[in-house]
């Protein structure tokens, strides 16, 4: 029997970042705990193991983010563990769930309609001038990358007139986390520009707070003391980037999956409420973030190996969400699968009925605070697009790329044409 081997050099190739799943299957099946000596990482790729690791605050610490995220954004709650993390999270998390989400729904709907109106108006103009027989749109640039930024701008109380600035800054800041040295330098520069932009606003709203999120952060307290200006600016950066990136990729990938699965898209056309299930399955099969890493602060025993203190463990969300031990035919997109929990995301990871939840928002204490906002934007936005675009389809010869988070991917595109409604 031939021994199976794995070359970690594949992690540095465009091939891997275009389609990481076959390589992660090799790790799941043969090296469920894999020591990548080339990059100094320990890969954990099976669903149950990743869930356990996410919820383990004894052996793992998020202090490693000081070596990446803090360099671009500054210090945020992401770099804290334990009580310090909880105190900071409790300031902002309530703004993104429950009844406090209700005022955000009209904001999402308004910004959605503004973008849809631009798409349909552009199509009508092209049709009137005889440039095309059908409406056309590149959905990533025209919609999915813009909606979350517009919503966050409104949440922070910033002017929509400067949308193009924020739209330029947030992907550059995101690329600065994992990209080339040049991308990191530019990401830091963009973050500095964003911080300079809101610096005066933080001063003003500390004295005269309004109803926007920056104002709420200005008057919030941790241990009886208000957050520092640098903390407020760092969290605002995190919100702009994390909120923009997650929803951008989710919406774009939802529509690529619909284009690639016409039978399921026909069902969604008949019942647009199924976009909720489309979002969930998209977050499983093509999550916006492929992994999270942690510092090891206590030795971890797994599969007869020991991850030593000081090592960096890599929790593979891509790998876990495609684990055949949990999901039947995990590489197939199926909004009607019966082994995935399709309800609202849970920090525990499992629904009480035993169905596994996707790990696209992480798990445990660092579970994404904006999960409900991202779902609302993706579902509301997709319903509005479907209503505005008759018979949407990939433009002949047009690009339709799944967006996989990674440093080597080209600018994503989704080129559609549609019948004017």
Summarize the structure in short.
With 421 residues, the chain is an alpha+beta fold. It has helices at 14-18, 21-30, 47-54, 69-73, 82-92, 104-128, 139-144, 147-156, 163-178, 181-207, 213-219, 229-260, 262-270, 275-285, 317-321, 371-388; strands at 33-36, 41-44, 60-61, 135-138, 221-222, 225-226, 291-296, 300-302, 305-307, 312-316, 389-394, 415-420. The chain has a five-stranded mixed β-sheet, with helices on both faces. A three-stranded antiparallel β-sheet has the order 4-12-11. Strands 5-6 form a two-stranded antiparallel ribbon.
**Largest sheet features:** 5 strands, mixed
The end-to-end distance, rounded to whole angstroms, is: 60 Å
Look at the helices and sheets and give the structural class. alpha+beta
The averaged pLDDT comes out at 89
| CATH second-level architecture | Orthogonal Bundle
CATH level-3 fold name: Cytochrome p450
CATH level 1 class label? Mainly Alpha
Count of β-strands: 12
How many H/I helices?
Answer: 16
* Apparent shape: globular
What are the secondary-structure elements, in order, as H or E? HHEEHEHHHEHHHHHEEHHHEEEEHHEE
Portion in strands:
5-15%
CATH homologous group name:
Cytochrome P450
Strand order of the largest sheet: 1-2-10-7-3
Low-confidence stretches: none
**Fraction of helical residues:** 40-55%
Question: Could you explain the architecture of this structure?
Answer:
Helix content is 49%, strand content 11%. With 421 residues, the chain is α+β, with helices and mostly antiparallel strands. It has a single domain (8-420), classed as Cytochrome p450 (Orthogonal Bundle), CATH 1.10.630.10. It has a 5-stranded mixed β-sheet, with helices on both faces. Strands 4-12-11 form a 3-stranded antiparallel β-sheet. Strands 5-6 form a two-stranded antiparallel ribbon. Helix 9 (163-178) packs across helix 10 (181-207) and helix 12 (229-260) crosses helix 16.
């Amino acid at each position: 029997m031939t021994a199976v081997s794995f070359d970690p050099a594949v992690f540095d190739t465009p091939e891997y970042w275009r389609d990481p799943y076959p390589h992660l299957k090799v790790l799941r099946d043969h090296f469920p705990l894999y020591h990548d000596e080339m990059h100094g990482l320990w890969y954990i790729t099976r669903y149950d193991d990743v869930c356990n690791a996410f919820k383990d605050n004894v052996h793992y610490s998020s202090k490693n983010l000081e070596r990446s995220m803090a360099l671009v954004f500054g210090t945020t709650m992401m770099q804290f563990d334990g009580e310090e993390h909880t105190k900071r999270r409790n300031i902002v998390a309530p703004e993104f769930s429950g009844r406090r989400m209700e005022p955000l729904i009209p904001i999402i709907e308004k910004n959605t309609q503004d973008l849809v109106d631009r798409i349909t108006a552009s199509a009508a103009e092209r049709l009137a001038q005889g440039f095309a027989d059908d409406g056309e749109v590149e959905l990533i640039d025209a919609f999915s990358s813009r909606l979350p930024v517009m919503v966050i701008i409104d949440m922070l109380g910033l002017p929509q007139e400067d949308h193009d600035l924020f739209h330029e800054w947030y992907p550059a800041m995101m690329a600065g986390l994992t990209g080339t040295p040049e991308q990191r330098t530019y990401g830091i520069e963009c973050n500095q520009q964003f911080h300079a932009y809101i610096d005066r606003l933080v001063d003003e709203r500390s004295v005269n707070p309004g109803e926007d999120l920056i104002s709420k952060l200005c008057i919030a307290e941790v241990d009886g003391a208000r957050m520092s200006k640098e903390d407020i600016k760092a969290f605002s950066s995190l919100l702009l980037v994390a909120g923009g990136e997650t929803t951008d990729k989710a919406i774009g990938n939802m529509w690529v999956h619909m284009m690639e699965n016409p039978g399921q898209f026909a069902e969604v056309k008949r019942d647009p409420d199924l976009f909720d299930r489309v979002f969930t399955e998209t977050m499983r099969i093509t999550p916006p973030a492929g992994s999270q890493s942690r510092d090891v602060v206590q030795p971890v025993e797994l599969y007869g190996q020991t991850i030593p203190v000081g090592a960096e463990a890599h929790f593979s969300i891509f790998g876990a969400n495609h684990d055949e031990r949990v999901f039947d035919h995990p590489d197939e997109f199926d909004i009607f699968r019966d082994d995935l929990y399709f309800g609202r995301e849970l920090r525990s990871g499992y629904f009480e009925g035993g169905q596994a939840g996707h790990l696209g928002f992480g798990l445990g204490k660092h579970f994404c605070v904006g999960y409900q906002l991202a779902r609302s934007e993706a579902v509301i936005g997709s319903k509005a697009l479907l209503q505005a675009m008759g018979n949407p389809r990939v433009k002949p010869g047009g690009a339709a790329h799944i967006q996989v988070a990674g440093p080597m991917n080209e600018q994503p595109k989704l080129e559609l044409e549609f019948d004017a409604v």
